[in-house]
Amino acid sequence: MGLERTLILFKPDAVMRQLCGKLLTRLEDRGLKVVGLKMLQITPEMSKQHYSEHVSKPFYPQLEAFITCGPTIAVAVEGLEAITVVRTMMGSTNARDAAPGTIRGDFGQSRQVNLMHGSDGPEAAAKELKLYFKDEEFVKYELVTAGYLMADDEK
Length: 155
Fold this sequence. Notes:
Alpha-Beta Plaits, globular, alpha+beta, 155 residues, 38% helix
């Protein structure tokens, strides 16, 4: 896989519970590099674009109501196999099933009010990153710890 960039959303429940600092720390502690970060209010139109594959499903109205109910923090991160790493860190979508040590397992109880969204594959990451960030909003820099996070042949 190699280096990837992915989107993470700290959903309104994470913001309202003041967990975003803890969640960001866990991502950084894992060695993921933050290359974009912003707080926003997701509109119904953005929700429909983001969750386009779910719009016709019976649960969509509740999903839209939740994701638009308060502020969200969008985070773009880079790292080795970042998509898989983030999704593993988040844990099962239903927090009641999430393993201890995962974000949802440590901080959540709900299937839908589940703190975070992470892109589920490269195509979704590309689409979602474009929805939340302009190209010029990504910051390029090298972590001083980069040489200690991965071998040269993994870069």
